[in-house]
């Protein structure tokens, strides 16, 4: 697979609701595959390898604090963090057995499943449509998505923003073929954007917040009213089946760290910023546009993911139909 992939804070009451939803995921993990408890007892893993992107702020925070390691150490389980530049590459790592669990946006799992990757969706974070956008340089004459016709638009192929671009063009009365997509990973896309080699860039936070603050880039459209921008936790199916307690511990730690982050955004941004090589203000802005709190996939969320897969098939972006149901946990 060659394709290459990160909120406004809720009120305290809403945050608690999301966190409670995340905690409910813990009970859900035990339903991934029949006989999990027995399987785990027979073949419990001694390590959890987590595929992450440095732009995934919550996981970056967890890694830096060592909270998951402390939670799993008494059970004889170590943690290995494997960094990837974007979601598609992370899915490649999951498919070849380099990691056991990964965290990505909406599109990478679809491209990976179309390429035959074996994984299972084990949870998702709430929607964060403001955390991705189409931006243009501050002095660009482009004021709307409709004006992108014939223009060069940079994006990471197979990432969450791929679907945002498709939906934004559709709303503006344009076809995907009306623009010139330029497939670049975030660092290369930022360079091309700054030197004027592309007319627009479709990107997610914190790269979005960084280019806004550091170059004055203007948002012509974000995901509101267009996409959900869910983020998904995925696992190698066999690992999920054999090690439900390890995944449960991961989710417990994720929920706990999300709760702390929501209550301490400035402090969290100060910790995360040097790890991401960004200004604290940039990270804080990105954190305010993301939602956190892992929860089990509902039928509605799975249906939305299926819609994206069907759109990608219609555009010829994936080679064959994808059934999201085939990658859902067996109840």
Write a concise keyword list for the protein shown above.
single chain, 331 residues, alpha/beta, D-Maltodextrin-Binding Protein, domain 2, 2 domains, globular, disordered N terminus
Could you describe the 3D structure shown?
The chain is of the alpha/beta class and 331 residues long. It has 2 domains: 12-128 and 230-327, D-Maltodextrin-Binding Protein, domain 2; 130-222, D-Maltodextrin-Binding Protein, domain 2 (3-Layer(aba) Sandwich), CATH 3.40.190.10. The chain is 45% helix and 15% strand. The chain has helices at residues 12-29, 36-42, 57-65, 67-72, 87-95, 107-114, 160-171, 186-194, 207-215, 237-242, 244-263, 265-276, 280-287, 299-314, and strands at residues 47-52, 78-83, 101-104, 120-125, 132-136, 152-155, 180-183, 200-204, 218-222, 231-235. The strands form 2 sheets. The protein has a 5-stranded mixed β-sheet, sandwiched between helices. β6, α7 (160-171) and β7 form a beta-alpha-beta unit. The longest helix has 20 residues, at 244-263. The radius of gyration is 19 Å and the shape is globular. It comes from Roseateles asaccharophilus. GO terms for molecular function: ATPase-coupled transmembrane transporter activity. Belongs to the bacterial solute-binding protein SsuA/TauA family. Residues 47-264 form the Solute-binding protein family 3/N-terminal domain.
